[in-house]
Design a protein that fits this description.
Layout: H1 23-37, H2 49-60, H3 68-71, E1 75-76, E2 86-97, E3 103-113, E4 118-119, H4 121-132, E5 135-136, H5 138-153, E6 157-166, H6 167-170, E7 181-188, H7 189-192, H8 194-201
Parallel strand pairs: 2-5
Antiparallel strand pairs: 1-4, 2-3, 3-6, 6-7
The chain binds zinc ion (ZN).
Length: about 200
């Protein structure tokens, strides 16, 4: 997080620019960082660290390898006319802020009102994960999740609320613990109908 106002961004997907560096280059970069921090990357306890950190980064940023649209491609139509709200509550996620690469730890509430077809509920969680496992700002991630559901499922409405703590704020900078940032994006019925929005917000705890 930083204190500067952020211009609204489009929901365009973040993609790696240029060719992917070799693993050895990445490990060498982490050896440089260890030296710069003041330690010796050759000492016993640190010898394997650059390889381990590289592997950890692979997990933390695996979201670049998944196309969120494709996750939602498979839908179910035999829903007996179900057209009420579907809400997956409190989906835990781990992300990293794009300003400091510090952890963002939080939960997401994702709701939509279908028009004739629904998606497997685990797919909602996977969309959250796919965007979380990239360099992020919370506001952008909130929009990306909502916009993807809206674009692919074409539902009557989409609602996304995210609550998260930002380690760049608690472990450095202003050192403020115990705060969380709440962001939301409401589309369609959730934006236009106060009752619908209220019904959703009552499910966010
Ligand atoms: Zn940050």
């Amino acid at each position: 997080m930083n204190d500067q106002p952020r211009p609204p961004k489009s929901s365009s997907r973040t993609t790696a620019a240029g060719a992917k560096p070799a693993r050895a280059e990445v490990e060498e970069a982490f050896r440089t960082i260890i030296r710069w921090a003041g330690d010796d990357p050759a000492r016993d306890g640190l010898r394997e660290t650059p390889a381990r950190v590289t592997k950890a980064f692979q997990e933390w940023f695996v979201g670049y390898q998944t196309d969120p649209d494709a996750l939602l491609a498979k839908t179910f139509e035999e829903i007996e006319g179900y057209d009420e709200m579907i809400v997956l509550r409190g989906i835990p996620f781990e992300s990293h802020c794009e300003h400091h690469m510090a952890p963002i730890i939080g939960r997401a509430w994702v709701g939509y009102i279908p028009t004739g077809r629904v998606v497997g509920i685990s797919k909602l969680a996977r969309v959250v994960d796919t965007y979380a496992k990239r360099l992020q700002i919370q506001e952008k991630m909130t929009s990306q999740i909502a916009n993807t559901l809206n674009k692919v499922l074409k539902p009557q409405g989409v609602a996304v609320v995210i609550k998260a703590t930002h380690h760049c704020m608690s472990t450095r900078g202003v050192y403020k613990h115990g705060t969380d940032l709440v962001t939301s994006r409401m589309l369609g019925a959730f934006r236009n109908n106060p009752m619908t929005r209220q019904e959703f917000m009552a499910l966010v705890d």
